[in-house]
């Protein structure tokens, strides 16, 4: 791989990240002179004197007693040391620790969902493209408008109603003791799988269809390329042409969309986690919202943006490995 | 105006577009005349002593368990929020996307760099969490939701428009206009904008559909206007109100179908527009469908037509030769 | 084994149509062609006259849908190509019949090295190891004059120059010494100087291996360089068929005359290019009568009404015209 290209990409990613952090710093400060007022809004039964004392304390505790620019520099410095701030929750836990606690639980849902969507989506999409115009293809075309119009959270509610409450196949709500009692035993893992089943099914239906759709379109587009005719003119069989010449080229755009979807990987589970009471980042964020815990909300936001950026970076680098035209020198038409 | 009418006629002639147009028409009708159609006042939480009724003639979709509101009336009123948010956002997104895309593509230079950097930043900020933060900061309202959707929604369209503008910019007729001394503004309005207008119209329909799903999600999370009735909020009420527990499936399915129909109809219109504007890009193996419906005798006739000419030629050639010999 | 005079390739009444929703495109309307081993036949015509479709039809490479083909006879070296199964055709393609495409950049897979794409032919048609295939590929690259073939073997198509890419395609075509090569506009995408080199190479290899060649081009100067016989094609039909020398000396069809006149010559001090007015007719709506009549300066009432037959005149030459220019 071309070194210059890699360095350029990394520098650009850092540049965008700097912009994102700046936005992240300033968003909670929009519309108020003193961020302390945001962190501790005045309560009705409090006198002005009392409130001013509390404000002063808050200012000191969160470092609002210096100028905004100094706050900003301190914020960046903290970030460099991996500190996303301190939550307003009782006991003042670090935001990083809260995220670290919940992240694995969200990943259980979202990574499984992504894996299932990509795997089955690509397989089905390739099959549909291969048997173009046959029933599998027609089913896909019809399914794609239907599943886009059926939001995942609606499916989740339906599944919860039927598979959860009526037929009792899977737990309709996540077992509240799931997290606290987890101990890596087979039995515990099995329980997690059982609880995760409904959310994952609800999330992956739309995912499978959309990946299948884009795979199909990509495979068909590549099948019409000249080099595919060349490959056939060489006497290669249909299957060889498909595997060696069509698929690799067709999956390139899918890799890109995969990288783009990393940003939605964690954030997208918010509604589903809420429906099933799943103890992940989504519910953490909603709790933070309900308690006006700004440091926690902004910390999660920044974390998600960082993950998205990293996802895009890795995608770009992978793409350059898969497609020699991006980095290997020589003229590009 | 005339153009818009002829476009609607074109969508109507497209079989898939007609389905979309019909459903969307019914929904718009419901939204406008909701007070006339709805049998009860959906906001009225005190009217019924009996709560959690099953569907009956009086209450086609029953009543809610907690407050006894008429679900059918709520369903009708819900169309208002969904359509309003979807359409307004779709149109505003198209406008801003067009301006940004044309600026980036046609003006180029610093303008292009700036717009594309902003797009890159927007793409990595997680939309849903940011929406939650902003509604927390500035209060829950549909104005806020539309604002955020527009702020984040234009990026994708701007990229597409920019790419198309770059193609147009290098086309001969734009170059000719430039050489003949037409101003930038004139070229943008007269040559570039019409060249991308089909993308804008199509995008408005498709993004409206996407926005309706997103709006339902936000309302479901309780981020919409807390006083309005929307399908997403109905679903949230159903979940928290015990529809799952008591097996009141109609309370869940009704708003679900509302969301489905609105999104489905706009998507169908969007896809129909895509085919109308770009007939070469036939979807869904239209060619295969065509091949299956092709009448074999017709094909044979086409082949034979070419043949007959040939045979006639041969016969005449033979005659001519014979004539020459005599 | 086989009698030298027996044709290697024999095509009778080949027809290809592309049905679409707008109507039927009649791409090839019944052409005949026969070719002896080692012979070079040129098919000449403007773009859109059906030349490329013919070449793909011969190799049975046309996908159906969208194409439909029919022929009375399509035989190659004793095989009836019309009756062969796909796997038998695969054996034949690349081993006995090869193809050289016009645009080498799109005709080579962008994500595979040139070497691996060449290896595929050897591995497919000869029972050899990968190592031997690599050696054979490098040798084949050397034969077509690619400098430092060991290095180029590991290059991707976009890293080579246009001329080099075309040489790679030629090397691929001659790799396993086929009996017939179809070259579809082999030099159109190249600079004039490179064109001559590539044509020389093609001619040299053809003579060395005694390969039959179908040369498809719109450029009569390319034909002059290579062909034994020339078939001039217009709008899906052959309009004139003659050996190279007599065609160039004395074109009978007004279209051929036009084509010849549009090749600028040094010895005449022409002040302007001679051109054929107008364009090739839309293959979906071909004119009545002789397809060429709207562009023909010798057009009469008869031409407007009736398609002339392809008649054989003295010297075995054939022409499709009511008023041949003898």
Q: Give the count of helical stretches of chain A.
A: 14
Give the CATH architecture of the largest domain in chain B: Orthogonal Bundle
By DSSP (H or I, 4+ residues per run), the number of helices of chain B equals 14
CATH fold assignment of the largest domain in chain B:
MetI-like fold
Average of the residue pLDDT scores of chain B: 83
* CATH class identity of the largest domain in chain B: Mainly Alpha
Specify the overall morphology of chain B: flat
Overall form of chain A: globular
H/E order of the elements of chain B? HHHHHHHHHHHHHH
> End-to-end distance of chain A, in Å?
21 Å
| Assembly state of the chains shown | heterotrimer
Q: What fraction of the residues of chain A are assigned to beta strands by DSSP?
A: under 5%
Note poorly predicted spans of chain B: none
Domains of chain B (count): 2
Major sheet of chain B, described briefly?
none
Calculate the terminal CA-CA distance of chain B, rounded to whole Å.
73 Å
CATH superfamily of the largest domain in chain B: MetI-like
Share of residues in helices of chain A? over 70%
Strand-helix topology:
The complex is a heterotrimer of chains A (333), B (326) and C (326).
Chain A (H helix, E strand, L loop, with lengths): L2 H24 L8 H5 L8 H15 L5 H13 L14 H36 L4 H15 L2 H15 L19 H38 L2 H8 L4 H30 L2 H7 L4 H10 L3 H29 L1 H4 L6
Chain B lengths: L1 H12 L1 H18 L1 H4 L33 H37 L1 H16 L2 H12 L3 H28 L2 H8 L4 H37 L10 H11 L1 H4 L2 H29 L8 H8 L2 H30 L1
Chain C lengths: L8 E12 L2 E13 L4 E5 L6 H8 L9 E3 L2 E4 L2 E2 L5 H7 L4 E4 L3 H4 L6 H12 L4 H14 L5 H4 L9 H13 L5 E5 L7 H18 L2 E6 L2 H7 L2 E6 L2 E7 H6 L4 H8 L39 H5 L5 E2 L5 E2 L7
Parallel strand pairs in C: 3-9, 3-10, 7-8, 8-9
Antiparallel strand pairs in C: 1-2, 1-4, 1-5, 5-6, 10-11, 11-13, 12-13
Helix pairs in contact in C: 4-5, 5-7, 7-8
Characterise the protein shown here.
The complex is a heterotrimer of chains A (333), B (326) and C (326). By secondary structure, chain A is mostly helical. Chain A contains 14 helices and no strands. The longest helix of chain A has 38 residues, at 186-223. Mean pLDDT of chain A is 85; it is low at 329-333. Chain B has 326 residues and is an all-alpha fold. Chain B folds into two domains: 2-41 and 65-277, MetI-like (MetI-like fold, Orthogonal Bundle), CATH 1.10.3720.10; 282-326. Chain B is 78% helix and 0% strand. In chain B, α10 (231-241) packs antiparallel against α12 (249-277). The longest helix of chain B is centred in the N-terminal third of the chain and has 37 residues, at 71-107. The longest helix of chain C is centred in the middle third of the chain and has 18 residues, at 192-209. Chain C has 326 residues and is α/β, with parallel strands linked by helices. In chain C, α4 (114-125) crosses α5 (130-143), α5 (130-143) packs across α7 and α7 (162-174) runs parallel beside α8. The model of chain C has no long low-confidence stretch (mean pLDDT 84). The chains are: A mainly alpha (333), B mainly alpha (326), C alpha/beta (326). Chains in contact: A-B, A-C, B-C. At the A-B interface, α1, α6, α7, α10 and α11 of A face α5, α6, α9, α10 and α11 of B.
